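Archive maintenance. Older records in this collection stored only the sequence; we are now back-filling the structure field for every entry so that each record is complete. The fields below show one back-filled record exactly as it appears after the update. Entries are processed alphabetically, and Spore cortex biosynthesis protein YabQ is next in the queue.

ARCHIVE ENTRY
Title: Spore cortex biosynthesis protein YabQ
Organism field: Thermoanaerobacter pseudethanolicus
Length field: 158
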Amino acid sequence: MVITIQNQVYAFLVTVYGGFVLGFIYDIFKVTRRVFRLKKTFSNIADIIFWLFGTITMLYFMYISNYVEIRFYSFLGFAIGVILYYVLLSYFITQALIGIYEFTIKFLKKMAEIIIYPVKIVVNFFIVPYRFTRKILTLPGAFLKNNLTHFKIFKRKK
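Back-filled structure field:
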């Protein structure tokens, strides 16, 4: 197959874009680590998963660009893409992902409050009268217990 300069430039630009995608995938894993505070074992597993995704991504972009023909400019394109991503976009994307996470957590907490509020009302509707009647019914027993122990007649003999 004849590879023209135009095809090589196309392959290079596709791999640069692939480098951007690899940087984005890494930012997702970085934010996931930061948010969930993964322990060392899970962090190692996440690294393996990242490299699997990274490898699949690289192979996909190399397949799109030049049918997985391994060329130096392909790896150079990935490296330049990752570097450009970190210089230009990484900070903003990381902040956006953290913001999305925090918004999602706040939203889910608010939804849980909205869902739990009617349940609390129903539970209180049944528990408050139960506690009140239990207190009323136990008052005579507590009164007798406290007052009858003062008389020596009702004390147990040892």
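Update note: The chain has a mean pLDDT of 86. The chain has two domains: 5-88, 115-147.
Entry marked complete.
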